[in-house]
Amino acid sequence: LMEKMAQYGSEHCPVVIVEGILKTWVYRDMLETMISFFDTTISVYFKVSFAETVVRHQTKPNCDDFGEAELISWWNEDDRLGYDDELEIDDAMTLSESVKMILKRYKEIR
Questions:
Q1: Separation CA 8–CA 2 (nearest Å)
Q2: What sign does the dihedral 1-86-81-92 (CA atoms) show?
Q3: N or C terminus of the chain with fewer C-beta within 10 Å?
Q4: What is the pTM of this model?
Q5: What is the arithmetic mean of pLDDT over 63-71?
Q6: CA torsion through residues 19, 24, 30, 33, sign
Q7: What is the DSSP string of 2-31?
Q8: Longest CA span, the chain
Q9: Do the Cβ atoms of 47 and 90 come closer than 8 Å?
Q10: Strand 44-47 vs strand 87-90: parallel, antiparallel, or unpaired?
């Protein structure tokens, strides 16, 4: 379904964002297929510690839907696609800084 949505987006929307806990050992082929739908892409890796992940999770509207036990079961340290130009968001970056970094890259490549 995610691949179909990205394909639809590539044909009808100027920007498509695919986001989620997408382990490369499961989703690499699908992600690479989705990347092929677009002329340009931006790959962003969240290099955020587990402790910071828990803190950030508490700020989400659905934070009570699942907790630390589920988060740790999904955790996969340093699970990158491995593209040379992959952007990295780390613990120290604020939401505003992260958005500015992505928008800067977007302006550079379009």
A1: 10
A2: negative
A3: N
A4: 0.79
A5: 94
A6: positive
A7: HHHHHHHHHHH-S-----S---HHHHHHHH
A8: 41
A9: yes
A10: parallel
Query: Would you state the structure tokens that stand for residue 51, as one six-digit string?
Result: 């402790």
Would you state the pLDDT for residue 68? Answer: 93
Rounded CA gap, 55 and 25, in Å?
Answer: 26
3-class SS at 42?
coil
Q: How far apart are CA 109 and CA 86, in angstroms?
A: 13
Contact 40, 13 (CB under 8 A): no
Question: Would you say 81 and 45 are in contact if contact means Cβ atoms under 8 Å apart?
Answer: yes
**What is the gyration radius of the CA atoms in the chain, in angstroms?**
15
Q: Which two tokens stand for residue 65?
A: 């839907």
Residue 75 tokens, joined: 């955790």
What is the per-residue pLDDT across 71-92, written as a single tens digit (0 to 9) for each?
Answer: 999 888 888 888 888 999 999 9
Task: Report d(CA 52, CA 77) in Å as an integer.
Answer: 13
